[in-house]
Amino acid sequence: MKQLTALAFSLLLVACGQDAAPPAPAEPASDPPAQMAEVRSLSEILAAQPAEVQARYQYRHPGETLEFFGVSPGSTVIEALPGGGWYSKILLPYLGPEGKLIGANYAIDMWPRFGFFSDEFIEGTKTWVTDWPAGAEEWRDEDSASVSAFVLGSMPDELAGNVDTVLFIRALHNMQRFEADGGYLTSALMDAYTALKPGGVMGVVQHRAPEDMPDEWADGSAGYLKQSFVVAQAEKAGFELVDESEINANPNDQPTTEDVVWRLPPSLQNARDNEELRAAMEAIGESDRMTLKFRKPM
Fold first, then answer.
1. What is the pLDDT of residues 94-153, one digit of tens each?
2. How does DSSP classify residue 178?
3. Cβ atoms of 224 and 255 closer than 8 Å
4. Could you give the 3-state DSSP secondary structure of residue 80?
5. Which domains are assigned to the chain?
6. C-alpha angle with apex 30: 29 to 32, nearest 5 degrees?
7. CA-to-CA distance for 192 and 197, rounded, in angstroms?
8. Collapsed DSSP state (helix, strand, coil) of residue 18
């Protein structure tokens, strides 16, 4: 009778889908995950910038511009002529600890051609490749991208094919201005093409000359270049134009052949001590700018 009872109980367990075997021991608890790096959104980074920086968003549109170019956290970005870090201070936290920001300055022999920089300044350009990253360390924290630098025309071989995005933001006009003296624009575009991965993006924001202006005026010496010229030079270097945007356009900027871009904010050349002229230039705002997205073919 006891044997029948035991058999019946076993059959009942099977019928109910139960496993008569004892439950397996629980897996030991895994170690807690390592602390993740702080993830900061682009909007948060932009909101954290100083008030004087944010005041220029209405003309520079950094959030929309970086999104248009497809810049993303963890990527490797070359920023041409980063200077005092207006864009760098946004890019460093946005690219994050897996990202790399590489500054690229004008060629050393280009600086004396301006004719107004001091001997001390020109001498300082010779050590910019180490000086700029050292200064940029003050703009970053442990959750920011790494930082390095090189001079256009002397790009390190190890960058070839390893960069996601190259940014030329208001940086092309002076290279074209002195192109006949040293091929600076051609060399910079060649560096950009060589550095980018196949499918990588070259983003251009540039003071835009009206297409009906004389070519000799729109040669970069007044700060302006024609959009058709920029596209032609990029395509000559091997790039494809994949998109263009008017996010940085300013139709109020209608220069004449007597004008230079530095008459406008923030430079306000010749207007700082003339209240009426200053008000007129501030009413125009910053320059009209093309925003062009190029791609290195796959």
1. 999 999 999 999 999 999 999 999 999 999 999 999 999 999 999 999 999 999 999 999
2. T
3. yes
4. strand
5. 39-253+287-295 (3.40.50.150)
6. 115
7. 10
8. coil
- Dihedrals phi, psi of 33, to nearest 5 degrees: -60, 150
Kindly provide the b/e burial profile for residues 129-161, where b requires at least 16 CB atoms within 10 angstroms of the residue's own CB. beebbeebeebbeeebbbbbbbbbbebeeebee
Query: Does the pLDDT at position 5 exceed 50?
Result: no
Q: Could you give the CA distance from residue 238 to residue 51 in angstroms, rounded to a whole number?
A: 40
Handedness of CA 125, 130, 135, 141 (dihedral sign): positive
CA geometry: angle 134, 140, 146, nearest 5 deg:
70
Q: Give the global pTM.
A: 0.87
Residues 27-64 as b or e (16 or more Cβ within 10 Å = b): eeeeeeeeeeeeeeebeebbeebeeeeeebeebbbbbe
- The owner of tokens 């990029």 is 234
Which of 122, 58, 82 lies closest to 289, judged by CA? 58
The span from the CA of 291 to the CA of 203, in Å, is: 7
| 236 within 8 A of 230, measured Cβ to Cβ | no
State the average pLDDT for the chain: 90
**Dist CA 144 CA 163 (whole Å):** 17
* Share above pLDDT 70 across residues of the chain, in percent, rounded to a whole number: 87
**Mean predicted confidence (pLDDT) in 209-233:** 98
Residue 269's SS3 state is: coil
Tokens of 41: 């959104």
pLDDT tens per residue, range 37-91: 567 899 999 999 999 999 999 999 999 999 999 999 999 999 999 999 999 999 9
